[in-house]
């Protein structure tokens, strides 16, 4: 468990990463808004920029992020055919050196993946605790149709995932549901030596609406380490994010 000092440091890192991301939002962009403890500061700071004259429109990956966006004055657009985002900014529960991600700890993985796939540029914002040498420490979330739950649990257990039905954080006697009304299952693989293979296996299990492996989607990540924000890209050395005035 993080100490109180660690929690303060990580919270500061989240805000630093969010601030760095806002610098790259340009007038006229259509922006996808992520969900979670690092995406929320980005939305709040983007709202400040909008109130200062920046003209953007956005779509949110969750009801919570949509509510926050409305509160801070970001104009929202509804999903429609042909809609593509110039930039989506979202957090991650884990990210490795290849920018493979585990997402969905907040239960918004389906909408997060929809927007990530509909975006020209997916930018991840994260504190230093989200960097891992190998994915798997954080439980892999699944969004599951309720009727199929018993068979999904059997199939994931056969893959070594130790699946656990997620309970509602506010009411632990009730099951948690996504904004789409699906159940959420957390899979404790511990390590994921081949995320690509696992993603293919999960896609073949009927009843899994979506899984939390985001592979080949992130173009870059802004990761705060202490007072510095680093730009991470697949196949490139980490760089000081302050040296980039535009999306890299």
CATH C-level of the largest domain? Alpha Beta
SS class:
alpha/beta
Radius of gyration: 18 Å
Which regions are unreliable across 5 or more consecutive residues at pLDDT < 50?
none
User: How much strand?
Assistant: 15-25%
CATH fold node name of the largest domain: Rossmann fold
CA distance, first residue to last residue: 35 Å
Instruction: Assign a percent range to the helix content.
Output: 25-40%
Detailed description of the structure:
The mean pLDDT is 97. With 248 residues, the protein is of the alpha/beta class. It has 2 domains: 4-131 and 215-242, Rossmann fold, CATH 3.40.50.1360; 140-209, Alpha-Beta Plaits (2-Layer Sandwich), CATH 3.30.70.260. The strands form 3 sheets. Strands 2-1-3-6-12-13-14 form a 7-stranded mixed sheet, sandwiched between helices. Strands 8-9-7-10 form a 4-stranded antiparallel sheet. It is 28% helix and 22% strand.
Task: Kindly list the characteristics that best describe this protein.
248 residues; alpha/beta; Alpha-Beta Plaits; 7-stranded mixed β-sheet; Rossmann fold; 14 strands; 2 domains
């Amino acid at each position: 468990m993080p100490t109180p000092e660690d929690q303060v440091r990580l919270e500061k890192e989240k805000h630093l990463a969010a601030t760095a991301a806002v610098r790259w939002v340009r007038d006229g962009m259509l922006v996808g808004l992520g969900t979670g403890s690092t995406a929320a500061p980005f939305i709040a700071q983007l709202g400040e920029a909008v109130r200062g004259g920046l003209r953007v429109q956005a779509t949110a990956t969750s009801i919570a992020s949509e509510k926050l966006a409305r509160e801070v004055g970001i104009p929202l657009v509804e999903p429609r055919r042909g809609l593509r985002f110039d930039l989506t900014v979202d957090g991650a529960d884990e990210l490795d050196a290849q920018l493979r991600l585990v997402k969905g700890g907040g239960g918004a993985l389906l909408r997060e993946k929809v927007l990530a796939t509909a975006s020209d540029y997916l930018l991840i914002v994260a504190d230093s605790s989200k960097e891992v040498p190998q994915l798997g420490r954080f439980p892999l979330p699944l969004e599951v149709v309720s009727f199929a739950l018993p068979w999904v649990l059997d199939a994931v257990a056969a893959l070594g995932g130790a699946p656990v039905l997620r309970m509602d954080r506010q009411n632990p006697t009730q099951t948690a549901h996504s904004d789409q009304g699906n159940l959420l299952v957390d899979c404790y693989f511990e390590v994921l030596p081949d995320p690509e293979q696992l993603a293919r296996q999960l896609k073949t299990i009927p009843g899994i609406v979506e899984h939390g492996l985001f592979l080949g989607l992130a173009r870059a990540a802004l990761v705060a380490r202490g007072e510095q924000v680093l730009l991470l890209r697949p196949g490139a050395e980490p760089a000081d994010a302050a040296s980039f005035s535009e999306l890299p």
